[in-house]
Design a protein that fits this description.
Blueprint: H1 6-13, H2 32-43, H3 52-55, H4 57-95, H5 97-105, H6 110-154, H7 175-201, H8 205-209
Helix pairs in contact: 4-6, 4-7, 6-7
Transmembrane segments: 69-93, 114-140, 146-166, 178-198
InterPro entries: ABC3_permease_C, Lipoprotein-release_system
Pfam families: FtsX (PF02687)
Length: 212
């Protein structure tokens, strides 16, 4: 690539006052593909264009694949945590069978019993999600400084510029990703409460209180 005076190059290429192409720099690099396509649609089919996702396609696809795998890993982790909610509520239902039977005998409906355990499970999930979001956001905002402090304290370097393309660990908090993770966590938490709540609603007072 060579840089030269534009008027000299126009003379050499016999373009007159025209130019052979334009190069744009955007504030949002992830908008390059959509912006390029929008410009080409406006100019017409006789114009061609490309963006960095074409020239660096392999890197872009690797980053996209890594992001999908991280999302899948986070979903699996949330599912494991939701299973803990299931086991906790099942043990609570087993332990509170007598109390559930008493509530049923004084007129509580099965739907009310289900609601009690759903609310309890959602409360557990809400506390866990709130703590997780707070810690995750704090780490996302301070991870570069934290890694720098660890490297300076221990005298080690996690990312060697001679091996990797970067020498530090960049981090950008995206609230859209945070909201999707929170919604997925709430959804899995709600689903995890249904089976224990259903078991609680199926408790028969006569069978439980027979031996009380």
């Amino acid at each position: 690539m060579a840089y030269a005076n534009i008027e000299d190059m126009q003379t050499l290429a016999r373009l007159g006052d025209a130019v052979g192409g334009l190069r744009l720099e955007l504030d949002d690099l992830f908008a390059a593909s959509s912006e390029t396509q929008a410009i080409l649609n406006e100019l017409g089919p006789e114009y061609r264009g490309s963006d960095w996702t074409f020239s660096q396609g392999n890197l872009f696809q690797a980053i996209q694949m890594e992001k999908r795998m991280i999302a899948l890993l986070l979903t699996v982790i949330i599912a494991v945590a939701a299973f803990n909610i299931v086991s906790t509520l099942v043990m609570v239902v087993t332990d509170k069978r007598a109390d559930i039977a008493i509530l049923r005998t004084i007129g509580a409906k099965p739907s009310s019993i289900m609601g009690i355990f759903i609310v309890q499970g959602m409360a557990i999930g809400f506390i866990g999600i709130a703590v997780g979001v707070a810690v995750g956001v704090l780490l996302a905002l301070t991870i570069a400084d934290l890694i720098g402090w660890v490297e300076g304290t221990l005298g080690i370097q996690f990312l060697d510029a001679g091996v990797y393309f970067i020498s530090d660990l960049p981090s950008r908090l995206q609230w859209n990703d945070v909201s999707r993770i929170v919604l997925a966590a709430f959804g899995l938490t709600f689903l995890s409460t249904l089976y224990p709540a259903w078991r609680a609603a199926k408790v028969q007072p006569a069978d439980v209180l027979r031996y009380e």
